[in-house]
């Protein structure tokens, strides 16, 4: 199969090249979720792109059918920093622990992290005495280098592999956490990863899991960064196309529910854990059109119910603000038509680079959360609802007196 480095409308399955793709869910045209606007930019035209999920009838992959040019989605000034998300720091420490427990790591082994952001995961490996190297296209690479985590600032490519092999040799572990679904050419990605491996190497990836997205109705995790929503069936298909074996997998809580998979070069048996998870996918009908269409219907209903609840709260004279502002909250806001006429502002922790900017498409100002404690608006919409319980406790303990609105899976006001 030829190497495809495409952008624009996707006519064939991103994994198996099958032209028969079935439309599952359309979230309309949406802007790039991390493209926050300055006040000045509010006076300029803004681009929006189709955001539609389709499914491949052959390998089962659920995927977007429109791919935006990567340099637009991940510009150098991309605002996300892994080190700001406590849950991810914990997850990465746990991943480093788990990997160390597997027993095949020696001090000085090379760990390469693809899409390493600010080096949070590699820091955990470095502390265990490994050599670490990151590959990261955005300015987060500068942050990593400044804290002593050697990072190449570039998109991961055949050239990165050449550089790494020449200077450092093959990697014992290659990680791709929350990035394996982001790189537009799945075939080249796997080829490049394989080129960095020797017979001992293990590739570990973490991606949001289709099972979690469907079970919890997390349609807000759909945005242009996530080109493929993985499940084990298509991942296995992808690995086997390049003679890699899916050897192990586990469900983890990162990013609202993810799947962590382990792969090796050559032929190896699947662990009992993978076999069980694959059986569970089958039992849940995860790749059946019927299941996916039901998910779409639930999504459309949830969106309308949320909007109706917010309009009711607004009509009663209440001010509504949002907690917090993220990629996923921008999908929820944009798709649900919740804009600056409904929400006064979104709150972010002090120091967030989004403060002072406006959300893409919906143009809601992002402010320091201190404003919320001072103004005490009647309602706070918990946009980070996947960590809602924890967030509500924190905001309450810090003095917010209003009501919380949970947007999903069923929109409701909680006092
Ligand atoms: Zn396919």
Automatic annotation (TrEMBL):
Keywords: Methyltransferase, Transferase
Keyword Transferase in annotation: yes
One Pfam match: Methyltransf_23
Domain Methyltransferase putative zinc binding, first and last residues per copy: 13-74
Any single biological process term in GO: methylation
Leader sequence residues: none
GO molecular function: methyltransferase activity
Domain named C-methyltransferase: residues: 255-409
Origin superkingdom: Bacteria
Official protein name in the record: Class I SAM-dependent methyltransferase
